[in-house]
Amino acid sequence: MPDLRGFLRNLRLPGSRPRAYRGRTTPARARTAPVPRRDAGAQRYALGRVERPKPKREIHVPWRRIALSLVATSALGGVAYGAAWVVTGDSLRVVEIDITGAQVVDPHAVAFVSNLGRESMLTLDLAAADAAIEAMPAVKAATVERAWPDGVRITLTEHQAWGYWQAGGRVHVIDRDGQVLRQARPAPKDAPTIIDVASPLDLADGAIGDPDTVRLVARLLDEGVFEAARLRPTAFIFQRDRGLTVVAEGGPAAVFGDSSNYEFKVQAFGQVLRQIRAAGDATGSPQVAEVDLRFGRNVVLR
């Protein structure tokens, strides 16, 4: 029967320290390493998280950024000062005004009206100067442009008188478009005069001249219609109820009315003249004093 006391002695329970076997069959006592014993007064402590002290903050001055900012500010200030000096200084101001095409108008008056003297070349109002110059009586058109570095060039087109319009006992200077001119270059010596046979009541509204009649007379003269017909016009008469009548020496008067059907009227007038002259050669004297061309193919002879 096994030794129960030895068995119990050698039985190892959980958490117990191993002990030397003391059985009878063991000739010598087993040695084990000494187990360190805890001091009765020792205690355990849990270490907490201690916040590290903040290091002293060093002040960093961005000298490079400050220097660049100062340089940029100085450069911008210099550019602004230079621009202001160019705009307001005397280096780019108008000191010379060149005017061409002035025969009737006074060039000094043109320069004064333009209001460009001593103005900055960079801020010139050319449109306003052009409008002011064209408002002068003798100026028909004007062109204003810069002439760098300190000049302005003004080119004028003055009104050119073409002829005269006589109405109510007064003679008015007109251009080839029928516009009455207050001041213009003089008309040629052989300029025509259109006589307006109008009553004082017709002239009460202030309407002077008929542009269509003026252009019609100008075309007849430019194309040499009467020279080709061997006639010399002596008078151009305008009546508000029948238009233009051309009185010619050596032939009948021609009533053109207005400029409509111009080519037909000219051809018809030439054909009638040839027939009248042929009849006059046969009979000895022409019997027609006026050719009315206002009714198309129905040419009226009086």
Topology:
Elements: H1 4-10, H2 63-88, E1 96-100, H3 107-114, H4 126-134, E2 139-147, E3 151-158, E4 163-167, E5 170-174, E6 193-196, H5 211-222, H6 225-228, E7 232-239, E8 243-249, E9 253-257, H7 262-283, E10 290-292, E11 300-301
Parallel strand pairs: 1-3, 4-6, 6-7, 9-10
Antiparallel strand pairs: 2-3, 4-5, 7-8, 8-9, 10-11
Brief synopsis:
With 302 residues, this protein is α/β, with parallel strands linked by helices.
Polypeptide structure, described:
The chain has 302 residues and is of the alpha/beta class. Helix content is 29%, strand content 20%. It has 7 helices and 11 strands. The chain has helices at residues 4-10, 63-88, 107-114, 126-134, 211-222, 225-228, 262-283, and strands at 96-100, 139-147, 151-158, 163-167, 170-174, 193-196, 232-239, 243-249, 253-257, 290-292, 300-301. A hairpin with a 7-residue loop joins strand 10 (290-292) and strand 11 (300-301). The longest helix is centred in the first third of the chain and has 26 residues, at 63-88. The radius of gyration is 60 Å and the shape is elongated. The mean pLDDT is 82.
